[in-house]
Request: fold
Amino acid sequence: MIRKCEENDFETILAIINDAAQAYKGAIPADRWHEPYMTKEALRREIQQGVDFWKYENRGEMLGVMGMQNVQDVTLIRHAYVRTNSRRHGIGSKFLRFLLNQTTKPVLIGTWAAATWAISFYQKHGFTLVSPEEKNRLLKKYWSIPERQIETSVVLAEGKKIPATRTRRQ
Reply:
């Protein structure tokens, strides 16, 4: 069952993110990796900045989390993680399909360029990599991340219309 997370899910969200993020160790550049991968403060900041977390539960146990964040004219899928011992059971696919049905806006996903398994997963679900130039523009427009993370990330876009490549000069 997929449901929106509540305040009392905070510690479990954090535990799932930090458990599942271990898969990225070695793929994320060493200067961007830290332990824990996400701190309580960072998670609170993400929630305060509008990331709505959803949970995938089975028999009362939370097995995965995925965040959605509406930013301007797009929806971002953020922090998509499934517990290590629950991977490869279709949870991510069910989760992604569910969340895509929650928005009519174009959907963008950012991930680490070296996380080839994550990129393949999203491509399998109809997302396409944008060009390096478009990636830089989108990451600067819709995310608040350091330049080093922009350099080492990719953006995938869903089939719906992607916001215009150029912004009008004022």
The first helix runs from residue 10 to 20. The longest strand covers residues 61-71. The CA atoms of residues 52 and 68 lie 5 Å apart. The helical segments are 10-20, 40-48, 91-100, 116-124, 132-142, 147-151.
